[in-house]
Amino acid sequence: MKIIYDYQIFLNQKAGGPSRYFCNLIEEISKKEHVKVSAPIHINDYLQIINKKYVYGQKLDNIIFNSLPDRLKEFIKYKILKNYNLYFQKKKLADFKPDIIHRTYYDDYKTNTPVVLTVYDLIHEKFHEMYGNKALYRPKKKALERADQIICISKNTLEDLNYYYNINNKKIDVIYLGTNAFNSFNTQFQKKENLKEKYLLFVGKRTGYKNFSSLLKAYSLSKKLQSDFKIKCFGGGKQTKHESNFFSNLKIPYDKVDFLQGNDAKLAELYRNATALVYPSKYEGFGLPILEAMSLNCPVLCSNGSSLPEVGGDAVLYFNPNDTESILNSILSAVYSDSVLNNLIMKGREQVKKFKLEDCASSTLKLYKGLI
Predict the structure, then answer these.
(1) Would you tell me how many other CB atoms lie within 10 Å of the CB of residue 76?
(2) Which pTM does this prediction carry?
(3) CA torsion sign, 9 to 279 to 158 to 138?
(4) Which of 208, 321, 335, 338 would you call most buried, defined as having the most Cβ atoms within 10 angstroms of its Cβ?
(5) Percent of the chain with pLDDT over 70
(6) 3-state secondary structure 293-357
(7) What are phi and psi of 119, to 5 degrees?
(8) Structural domains of the chain ordered from first start
């Protein structure tokens, strides 16, 4: 069987859950089937790690492009490079003659080949106001209509998809994500390093529904917590002027929050040595960071809504993301109790075993075969 994964998510994301999911999936399925990623020009870090024989394309890692204002970069990506990629993808489809096209995002284009589409979440519909759209904004409509088979990455995503779209006539499977991204860094039975400073870890974007502001508000309520723990943020870019002003208004000392970037090795180190991952997001289609944390013996404290309880099970200490007191109480009850932290680590080791990459790939491959 020949499978092509298109360029969309790899032009959209430098790093992040959806593109990591696809790269994990591609590496696993390539062990059994002929796969190709059609990404003539992309910006994705994870594609650099995949065996080059599976990737058609080059990473745009240009100093001039990277220094451009965000709006100009977005214009270049979605008005110029998108059309460039689509033109050369048509040539690749003609040469490769795939049995399946797995679309990695929601732009629609014509094809006679069976199409699989993964739906990660319904963020743009649920938080339409945040993106300046009307309540009836339905950006996935054409892509969903074109798809022969739809994958939802959680039952919560499936429920949301049914709520926002009329898809009764579509074949839909829930296939949970799996991850092996940190296998090579796994130190499951080693003690953590002796650290000069203790810290709570936050991973990902910090704006909007990711709810970083509520974590900071909770943190600001306890002088003892500020004295004993820093907050380290990985990904999401550098500290903004708005965040600096926010810290000042909350009277959080500037040296108590670090903003870090880096590769998987750096992220693994942060997971491994954090007292806990705090994940206050108000909405997730899955919540891959909580599994990543569990795989590296990092206790997880997270929101009690959307897909997170589905993924975290009983291996997580939950809080109400809309209540700063709830967030603070969960943090305090965990970080000052070795028994609570050790229990979360122990349960996390078992919970992460339920989400194997091999199972994700096997279920996806079975779905492909059902279409041809």
Answers:
(1) 14
(2) 0.90
(3) negative
(4) 321
(5) 96
(6) HHHCCCCEEEECCCCHHHHHCCCCEEECCCCHHHHHHHHHHHHCCHHHHHHHHHHHHHHHHHCCH
(7) -105, 120
(8) 2-178+357-369 (3.40.50.2000), 183-354 (3.40.50.2000)
